[in-house]
Amino acid sequence: MPDTRVLLLHGLEHHRPRHHWLWWLAEELRQRRVPVQYPQLPSPDQPDPSAWTEIALTELEMLGGGHTVIAHSLGTVLWCHLAEQLPAHLRPARVALVSPPSVSVLERVAPAWAALDQGQVDATSTVVIGRETDPYRPEPLPTFAARLGARAITIPGPGHLTPEDGLGPYPGALAWALGVEADAWERT
């Protein structure tokens, strides 16, 4: 296994519940002795973009460059805000943006986040993953991903890839994080 180090960035109203696939993924990676950062970002019910940005940058400093980032929901917005401005020594080797929300939804549920600059991501290292339909993303996933300049992997069915949608352990996320399979995300 290559020198894998992983940063997990959660979304809105996420209190790191044990039944969420991000928790499961962090535990699976730790069991394999893969360094993983899974911070509880402050005030997840009313998140402040500057506070989340500060924590994410601190976590990236701890990991150093060449790591893997997996962001879910509002964590994808955080990543897109950070991506273009990251210094070279903090840039990841691979990024997965899972269930990104649309700006139109952010305007309703997290207005401060809707106003954030979200630049282009590194198209060679970034993949956008989501269901065919998602209540937090009214537009088709390929359209959303194209706007970011990234490749889309569409998973059949509706949902936001959460336990409420019936997703607990996520073997595809683990396989991708470990670099075993490039397109493993379809295995939910």
Word description of this protein:
With about 190 residues, this protein is α/β, with parallel strands linked by helices. The chain has a single domain, classed as Alpha/Beta hydrolase fold, catalytic domain (Rossmann fold, 3-Layer(aba) Sandwich). The chain is built from 7 helices and 6 strands. Strands 2-1-3-4-5-6 form a 6-stranded parallel beta sheet, with helices on both faces. The two termini are about 25 Å apart. The model has no long low-confidence stretch (mean pLDDT about 90).
User: Any idea how many domains?
Assistant: 1
How many DSSP H or I helices? 7
Instruction: Report the count of strand segments.
Output: 6
**CATH topology label:** Rossmann fold
Estimate percent helicity.
25-40%
Ends: how far apart? 23 Å
What order do the helices and strands follow? EHEHEHEHHEHEH
Mean pLDDT: 92
CATH class: Alpha Beta
Please compute the radius of gyration using only Cα atoms: 15 Å
CATH homologous superfamily designation: Alpha/Beta hydrolase fold, catalytic domain
Record the SSE blueprint.
Layout: E1 6-9, H1 21-31, E2 36-37, H2 49-63, E3 68-72, H3 74-83, E4 94-98, H4 103-109, H5 111-114, E5 126-133, H6 141-148, E6 151-158, H7 171-177
Parallel strand pairs: 1-2, 1-3, 3-4, 4-5, 5-6
